[in-house]
């Protein structure tokens, strides 16, 4: 079935076919699953869209007052990071309203370097929200830019710690660990997946990512269904792949091609949900902290979320490709 713009599409992995599409409107930005719903940010309308995964319909639009960028869910709360406002919002899913607003760009907590740039990625686990800050060289010092992970306590609802890390592009939590994904650049490993122990706040291991083509870069990370999932995309052509990794060893399992600009990913409600980008150019005020081409060299893409649901059982692992 054809996919409408600005919609969440559901794909049956057994048939590799789209089985449903949920229009969300505006400019989608960020997607997460939990508390019995699929949550999608609407940057244009500054709202959080709530989708019922059973009926596959929008059931609520929650006003945020800021542009949403990334979303994660914990027990009894939905958390929305705003790149524009440099804050983390807590939303109560029972009453569908914002209850807390936390400044995550302020300086301090023992890492130096002054105030950090806006939040670019978020993950939840171990009683905390883990935040990756944007790789914007003009907004931070060389020692901190892209190399700090912030920790927000979900109980205290406050920023409590900052951790030095490699050049981080994406972050997730699962299997008792924090997972980080580094992208192309000079600030850390090139296209690497790392496992961080939240007890010691140290890296356990780092694995290089396989290539999927020219100008390929990792662009999304999630944990679920017993695996670590990574999205990589290519600028030309604008497609990529979904990679499955073993969380214990870091070995590569299956690879699923994803067309039309795979951009972000979430796992839950028996599905792997992949945010895809449409074909229209973004407006200038829609800031992109990831490694997009500079304006004029390659058009930015308007937000179109898509979904890639797995089977209910853990995915069958294939043998890693021979080197």
The helix/strand series, from N terminus to C terminus, equals EEEEEEEEEEEEEEEEEEEEEEEEE
Q: Write down how many β-strands occur, each being a DSSP E stretch of 2 or more residues.
A: 25
Main sheet characteristics:
5 strands, mixed
Work out the strand percent: over 45%
- Which spans of ≥5 residues are poorly predicted at pLDDT below 50? 137-145, 279-323
Tally of alpha and pi helices: 0
Overall form: globular
> What's the CATH topology label?
Methylamine Dehydrogenase, Chain H
In helices, the fraction of residues equals: under 10%
**What is the name of the CATH architecture?**
7 Propeller
Structural class: mainly beta
- What is the CATH superfamily classification? YVTN repeat-like/Quinoprotein amine dehydrogenase
Supply the CATH class.
Mainly Beta
Mean pLDDT: 74
Offer a concise description of the structure.
With 323 residues, the protein is mainly beta. It contains no helices and 25 strands.
Description:
A 5-stranded mixed beta sheet has the order 2-1-25-24-23, with no helix packed on it. Strands 3-4-5-6 form a 4-stranded antiparallel beta sheet, with no helix packed on it. Strands 7-8-9-10 form a 4-stranded antiparallel beta sheet, with no helix packed on it. It has 323 residues and is mainly beta. It has no helices and 25 strands. Mean pLDDT is 74; it is low at 137-145 and 279-323. The chain is 0% helix and 50% strand. It is globular, with a radius of gyration of 18 Å.
Keywords:
four-stranded antiparallel β-sheet; mainly beta; 323 residues; Methylamine Dehydrogenase, Chain H; globular
